[in-house]
């Protein structure tokens, strides 16, 4: 009986996600066609209208404006929970990425990976009364909102959330996502490398942009900056993030699997010595990536201080295929044992 109800509930939730996406999609396509602009920009305008029906849409004729209001009026916030809204918006952003052929940095962190990071965090912080999160490169906010919702359920608390994003469109989408889901957050529309006055938190988490940071003078104040030429932006952001983590606090970052096998890694390792514990590096399943060079891993760091100590052994390994549920569950059990026996 319980399983039947659970299945019924799942179908109902999927239907709600699709219904919300349908509203976003029809409204965005209408604006896109009327204005002859990108789907992404049209989606941002749609979100503004959905949240405030009195928003004036200049550039639309009366007929299109009326159609838009009618479509958006189908949305009733009380009919949706936060996760349903997040997943519906995620579908719309994925369509924007496909239709507009936008740059790689707009790619959304898959929910499976977000769930794994949330699982590890919830294990470490189980029994605590509060948790604060910071994402120094939050993009559209999908990873941060997914973790907020997951930790709210698993730890029965409301996380304190902060995020930083430099890109105009991604910041607007993130801000709309938080507002839509009724998640209170402190958001900074700035470049984290320019040393934003962000709060100190328990956990820094980010699906880091990979590549070179273009403005060398901004990177000079970082210990991880390159002595010659451009610095790796993911190194700079790891340093920035961990500088905003409390003593004994953690950082969880999606990084290249080969993070410590480049020439530039020397600066990163030098900065870590004496102040950061490398607690884990878990490769994500290779099947998720087009080639070995593109493979990513979950990097687990911990600041020194408080009761922090170097885990022995460091958690190293590769996740089994997410499709192999038995092997995946076994690997999570191994993580549980490591957290309890070796990390704590």
UniProtKB/TrEMBL annotation:
Domain of life the protein comes from: Bacteria
One annotated GO biological process: methylation
InterPro entries: DNA_methylase_A-5, DNA_Protect_Modify, S-AdoMet-dep_Ade-MeTrfase_prd, SAM-dependent_MTases_sf, YtxK-like_N
Pfam families tied to this protein: N6_Mtase (PF02384), YtxK_like (PF21106)
Domain YtxK-like N-terminal helical, chain residue ranges per copy: 18-96
Alphabetized GO MF terms: DNA binding; N-methyltransferase activity
Record's keyword terms, sorted: Methyltransferase, Transferase
Ranges of residues in domain DNA methylase adenine-specific: 109-316
Name of protein: DNA methyltransferase
